[in-house]
Amino acid sequence: MSWGVDNLPYGVFSCPGERPRVGVRYGDRVLDLAPALHDEVFAAPSLNPFMARGRTAWHDTRTLIRNKLTGDLAVTEPHLIPLEHVRLHMPFEVADYVDFYCSLEHASNIGRIFRPGSEPLQPNWRHLPVGYHGRAGTVVVSGTPVKRPSGQLGPGEFGPSRKLDIEAELGFVVGVPTEMGSPAGAFEDHVFGVTLVNDWSARDIQAWEYVPLGPFLGKSFATSVSPWVTPLEALPRLPGRPQDPEPGGYLRRQGDWGLDVHLEIVLNGEVVSRPPYSAMYWTPDQMLAHMTVNGASLRTGDLFASGTVSGPEPDQRGSLIELTWNGTEPIKLPGGETRTFLQEGDTVTIRATAGDLTLGEVSGTVG
Amino acid sequence: MSWGVDNLPYGVFSCPGERPRVGVRYGDRVLDLAPALHDEVFAAPSLNPFMARGRTAWHDTRTLIRNKLTGDLAVTEPHLIPLEHVRLHMPFEVADYVDFYCSLEHASNIGRIFRPGSEPLQPNWRHLPVGYHGRAGTVVVSGTPVKRPSGQLGPGEFGPSRKLDIEAELGFVVGVPTEMGSPAGAFEDHVFGVTLVNDWSARDIQAWEYVPLGPFLGKSFATSVSPWVTPLEALPRLPGRPQDPEPGGYLRRQGDWGLDVHLEIVLNGEVVSRPPYSAMYWTPDQMLAHMTVNGASLRTGDLFASGTVSGPEPDQRGSLIELTWNGTEPIKLPGGETRTFLQEGDTVTIRATAGDLTLGEVSGTVG
């Protein structure tokens, strides 16, 4: 079954009139963990206290939940609540939010679009996973409406963005913090799980503002995440894509952290792209190592995202700016409609699978 | 007297064996607010709950404290604790941290240093206050030691930064949040007070990493703030510096938010620069308006900093990269020592006054 015992993602839910608390999705129901496991850490309105417990607790809890669900279901049944009775909330409290730029194809496409005639990749791109800090306070859960931002679109030009876009990404959620001054240890000792991310982007605002300090208002108005955080332990892994030059030192890969995740971007019900996460150039262990090599500390709830996932094929691109080549090649939708960038009322859903698992979806409607 | 009733900055302190709580500095003592005002909001280990109450509460509380301190001191005396008996903590819990780039002279100097032969200012600089998100989790209180970061210094080159620098800034602390989708209202309705900021910077790491997404590891290892937050109400104000072109629309100035603050940078006991805040080009009301014009929400505890404060004179520059022109013109210190960038054991203190007020200091030692 979908959402079976090999999946078991964590989220935060509430029933009408009750407080939000932690649950695990199983089939079309949510397991209410605090009473099911007799553990008050799950009565919190976010995953953070549980995530802070660390890898052994994550593993043991997962085993315990599997045993409950595969054992005498009569005992567990009272704690399984049908999905249609619950509301899903932001699953974790975001501490810092970092967004990387780890797809070779995405970075190359953006380079070609923004700097035609120049070398598409910047000189540093193959030497380090380029990243920057985003706004943690506007990370919202799937389903939150996204209002089109206004801003400066050029010198003396102000108004609603005309190039509202999405970026399909994976996000990595940190459970175990570090002290300032000490780089992170093993990836799997710190990272609790994976979420789907839509990094909404206003390309016209971004293009005017981003030199020299990077994206700011073009991104900070909203970033959506999926309600379910899939434990790292559940994900099928692959060797990372070969890198040239092969990174040494702190960027040497810690294991096979290529992830066999297949994304789909759905615009108003139509699949418009199928980005393969396996095509990503920098792997998440390298992102974590880079983010902390300077001694920057981690906190429970830190979210770092991969950057747009774009594969080598045109129908594997993870943003509209790439899919429509900056609006010059509109996408055709059923019923004769076309799109360059997003219009009022458009709904974008990013969903993903990994082998037999589903990572669920992150969805948002403009307006 | 210094730190008198016209000053009254807020901080978080603890006595040995006791929990951190909110106090106000008065002379060389700290007024223990929770018992003095019979208000449990001050028993919190951060200013956030009090800051969330809003402008009327801020004003009324300030009046109440002044009355206590100018009235029958016998009543208040038991709640005044000598500074030497207390430890000072991070005064507020940082939500998001944004760093701006609001000094015309600083931006011009950096442009000349990093891009010699080109126009020093980017085309957008006079049209908007350029800013970016920094790492909230590594904002620390004055006195926290700063470890020299390691990182990539160029292609294939890794090691401790050889260009460890400081940036003297003012920081603005948000008390009253906004909803996503709605720009902020009046500056003084949201911003609680002002702190001194040292935005430690590793210039070699920054120079290699920052294109195209902005500074990341060159800044994220540490940002220090002063322990005392001066209420906005206490600060002497000036008209903002004239702007060309004069900004309209959402960037039209909301009042006289030029601040008559004089900074000093002290390196190992020697004053090496005196940056005047009145020289800043973009005023803090413009920063706030810009940061939220796209609908990005504010949270209690958001910190936005001005960017390096540099005046027009060479001895008014707010960073070592400017003061030593990227290391080509070393600073002379007493005893025949010189400095380009920071060495192990160096102590940097940024202090400031505003009229008769002191804003205290933010200090840190490398190593």
Automatic annotation (TrEMBL), chains A, B:
Residues in Fumarylacetoacetase N-terminal domain copies: 7-91
Cofactor: Ca(2+); Mg(2+)
GO molecular function, one term: fumarylacetoacetase activity
Swiss-Prot/TrEMBL GO biological process terms: homogentisate catabolic process; L-phenylalanine catabolic process; L-tyrosine catabolic process
Span of domain Fumarylacetoacetase-like C-terminal: 98-356
Involved pathway(s): Amino-acid degradation; L-phenylalanine degradation; acetoacetate and fumarate from L-phenylalanine: step 6/6
Annotated catalytic residues: 106 (proton acceptor)
Residues the entry annotates as binding Mg(2+): 219, 223
EC number(s) from the headed UniProt entry: 3.7.1.2
Family annotation (Pfam families): FAA_hydrolase, FAA_hydrolase_N
Superkingdom of source: Bacteria
Binding site for Ca(2+): 99, 167, 169, 199
Keyword annotations from UniProtKB, A to Z: Calcium, Hydrolase, Magnesium, Metal-binding, Phenylalanine catabolism, Tyrosine catabolism
Residues involved in substrate binding: 101, 115, 206, 210, 308
NCBIfam families assigned to the protein according to its UniProt record, in alphabetical order: fum_ac_acetase (TIGR01266)
Descriptive protein name: fumarylacetoacetase
Native species: Nonomuraea aridisoli
Lineage: Bacteria, Bacillati, Actinomycetota, Actinomycetes, Streptosporangiales
Gene name per UniProt: fahA
